[in-house]
């Protein structure tokens, strides 16, 4: 039985497509749509977990990621 893990996906519009990033592992992917970018990121993460040495996973994994909105003065 495979276990699952909750990770964060940040998806940003970039020119004609979207870039997706998992900040916990610093792994990114892309796609033409939001869903494609998300799906491609899931695939990249699954491939990483299948092939990476457990010590590499532990070294790269950031367990505390905080995402918030900021209000700043401009101009």
TrEMBL record:
It comes from the Bacteria. InterPro entries: TA_system_antitoxin, TTHA1013/TTHA0281-like. This is HicB-like antitoxin of toxin-antitoxin system domain-containing protein. It comes from Nostoc commune NIES-4072.
